[in-house]
Amino acid sequence: MNENGAKLEGVKRIADFLGVDESTVRRWIKNPKRGAPIRKLGGRYFAWEADLVNWLSGQGLLPA
């Protein structure tokens, strides 16, 4: 863990953390205009918890 919180590896772990379906995460990944902080390394997606929370807050999907 670092200042960005835990590293979430894989679409399923990201979806579970956010409480959304895996298909929602995949839609966000396919739509770069959304700006989801989900990266791909070695064929596997990952994200940092804090980055996801900040992004959702900026989207108006979480209370500020």
Automatic annotation (TrEMBL):
Alphabetized InterPro entries for the sequence: DNA-bd_dom_put_sf, WH-like_DNA-bd_sf
Stored SUPFAM superfamilies: Putative DNA-binding domain
Highest taxon, organism lineage: Bacteria
One Pfam short name: HTH_23
The protein, known as: Helix-turn-helix domain-containing protein
